[in-house]
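Appendix C: a fully annotated inverse folding record. The material below is reproduced so that readers can follow the format used throughout the book. The structure is listed first as tokens, followed by the designed sequence.
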């Protein structure tokens, strides 16, 4: 089954922890710290694979995780880096944050490979914290946490021309006649339930890629039927061929159909109506030779300097040559820049933004400071040592916590309480 949409959970690898150890050698009585650093966690990477054209690999498996980095070891042994996880997708896949719907990356144009989630950094071993006054540090830095995110994958087909219209107007027949595509064709609605792509080769002129967009219905822009599933595939096309049943074989008014489809396009995305449109009035082989009234009505209503109407028969081939060469010429004179969606969301900002903290006054007048980052810092910092305490003080200053305490009126000698630890404040 064709799959053009999937929602998955991705997780990068956690960084390995730094190690605490000391040299223990026979003739080295005062061995220094030799704890190694933790390895880097694996990244989550999306990569375009030209050999696939659907997102079916992500329909039944929803969770994907990269490997974590190994912890550091004694004797300055560095932990092994976690293996990256490469997720292969077809060209044209847009990766969005599932929560906000904002674009993280568009795997099209020249973007064939992109890191979406970075693995956590490895923690430093205790060898990095030795100083002249603290020669045996008993703490090391833990590895950075992994990042986990739910993302929405949407495949927007990459084609020069989009073939749109109501169901059963002959789009699949046209595509099968002018390209090497072999779409399913039958005389009932919604035969086409996925976009079909084909390449049009023209003698003496530049060819182009055409996509048969499944039949639209009124209300499609509001999600009626399979509306949204179909409309997204029109967004990348540069020209639209709007196909109607000029013979009204099912009793439909082709003029009303054109207006109805255009309303859906306009409601879904205002930019769609800015694309050049060509009207293909199909099934003229079913019109009586002396009855061209409906074709004339279509031309009177829509034909202008910017929009042409071509009477065609997808079955007999009548009028197809004129239509295709006109579309090829139209494309030739347009800017050949691919439609690529700009990044709107950076996952790193969600995970590494400054975490909030609170400052409150206790009944005994102590300043109580709490926050997730403070708790983590206290968890891996040995504040009983001079080096560790200075390290923690630097952290409080960099986070703006000391400045906030001063603005709250803290004075020399006041007590600061943080998760069971108490300090006397001195500027």
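Designed amino acids, in order:
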């Amino acid at each position: 089954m064709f799959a053009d949409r999937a929602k998955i959970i991705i997780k990068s690898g956690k960084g390995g922890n730094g190690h605490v150890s000391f040299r223990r050698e026979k003739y080295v009585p005062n061995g220094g710290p030799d704890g190694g650093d933790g390895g880097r966690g694996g990244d989550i990477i999306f990569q375009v694979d030209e050999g696939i054209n659907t997102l079916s690999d992500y329909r039944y498996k929803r969770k994907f995780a990269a490997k974590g980095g190994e912890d550091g070891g004694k004797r300055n042994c560095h932990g092994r880096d976690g293996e990256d996880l490469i997720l292969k997708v077809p060209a044209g896949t847009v990766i969005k944050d599932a929560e906000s719907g904002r674009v993280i990356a568009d795997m099209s144009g020249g973007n064939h490979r992109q890191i979406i989630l970075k693995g956590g950094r490895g923690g430093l071993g205790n060898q990095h914290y030795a100083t002249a006054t603290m020669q045996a540090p008993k703490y090391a830095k833990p590895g950075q946490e992994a990042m986990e995110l739910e993302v929405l994958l949407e495949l927007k087909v990459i084609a020069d021309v989009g073939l749109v219209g109501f169901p059963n107007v002959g789009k699949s027949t046209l595509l099968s006649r002018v390209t090497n595509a072999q779409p399913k064709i039958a005389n009932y609605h919604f035969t086409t339930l996925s976009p079909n792509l084909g390449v049009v080769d023209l003698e003496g002129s530049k060819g182009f890629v055409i996509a048969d967009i499944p039949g639209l219905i009124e209300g499609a822009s509001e999600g009626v039927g399979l509306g949204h599933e179909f409309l997204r595939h029109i967004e990348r096309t540069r020209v639209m061929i709007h196909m109607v049943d000029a013979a009204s074989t099912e009793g439909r008014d082709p003029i009303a159909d054109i207006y109805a489809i255009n309303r859906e396009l306009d409601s879904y995305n205002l930019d769609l109506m800015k694309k050049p449109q060509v009207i293909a009035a199909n099934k003229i082989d079913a019109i009586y030779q002396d009855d061209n009234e409906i074709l004339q009505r279509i031309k009177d209503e829509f034909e202008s300097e910017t929009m042409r109407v071509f009477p065609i028969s997808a079955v007999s081939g009548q009028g197809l040559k004129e239509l295709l060469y006109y579309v090829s010429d139209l494309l030739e004179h347009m800017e050949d820049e691919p439609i690529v969606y700009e990044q709107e969301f950076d996952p790193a900002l969600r995970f590494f933004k400054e975490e909030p903290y609170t400052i409150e006054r206790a009944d005994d007048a102590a300043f109580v400071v709490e926050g997730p980052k403070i708790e983590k810092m206290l968890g891996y910092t040995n504040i009983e040592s001079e080096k560790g305490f200075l390290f923690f003080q630097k952290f409080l200053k960099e986070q703006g916590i000391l400045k906030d305490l001063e603005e709250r009126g803290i004075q020399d000698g006041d007590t600061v309480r943080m998760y069971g630890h108490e300090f006397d404040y001195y500027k």
